[in-house]
Amino acid sequence: MKTARVVPSTSVLALTLAVAGCGSAPAPAPTAHYSAEELNNAARPGLPEEDPDAPLPATTAASAQAVAPPPMAAVRVIHASPDRPLASVDLYLDDQTTPAATALAYRSITGALRVTPGEHAVPVRIAGTAATEAAPATAHTPALEGDHRYTVIAHTGAHGVAFAAADDDLAAPDAGHAKVRFFHAVVGVPAVDVCRPATPARAAAAGHPAEPAHPATAVFANVAPGTFGTEGYVDVVGGAAVTLQLRGHGARPCAGAALGAVTFTPADRSVTTAVAVGRTTPPAAPRALLLCSDGTFEGEPTCVGHALTPTGAPPPAASSPRPAPPAR
Asked: Looking at the predicted structure, is the pLDDT value of residue 47 above 50?
């Protein structure tokens, strides 16, 4: 059905004058009245008539982005603080009254927590404490980005519990290789080097050629307390035994006092975060190296503890993995 067309007033005036010039003037035509609906639906001069059944314009990309929820960051937390009052904690996010993670024990790890981008306050309460009670400690995350995956280390800082975060690299290494990064969380120990120990010269034997001595070499150098090694992930042999030695940082890398060593076998093509934990100041806590798999980001990740033994001592059996508490 066609809509009513509004005739411009100038056209009406011209028509009236033309008629007036031909004989006697006829009786005036009745005044035309149009409703608001008819005027609003009328076609505009010079433009095609609009189809009232045409679909509404699609939402623009800009407005669609304005209403779309922001991409979330994925975060897992490793409890690396040996402070006894906080041996098992509940973690809250900003002002929320429901914990994001419950009963997170020292030397264990949460599952993946979905967090909005930006910085966040994280009240840390003793496990089972009511959310209405004041938190004995509050840490703060760095600025988190959406669509990124992070490992956050809860460690003992200068003013209580502190957080340090780093992006996770979940890309699988090539066959025969593995990737490891390092975080220093031992309380009371200054900067450290993580080294491959020196090897003595070996004389030729049946089927084995002679090998010269090799000095200790730094895998991670001058790692300050509460920080990740600046080298990021480093390549190690996958599927074969690897010995890492923790030494105090001195004038030369790997020349400082030995603090202990760990021998472990990273799985082929694995990605691991190694965290040195413990305390040398009272109350002392045993030093150990936690090996936490970055490859098991979703699901039930675990950290396996290895005691840091005196250099040259046979490596002990690894402690049993501690299951991660369920993330809420």
From this structure: no
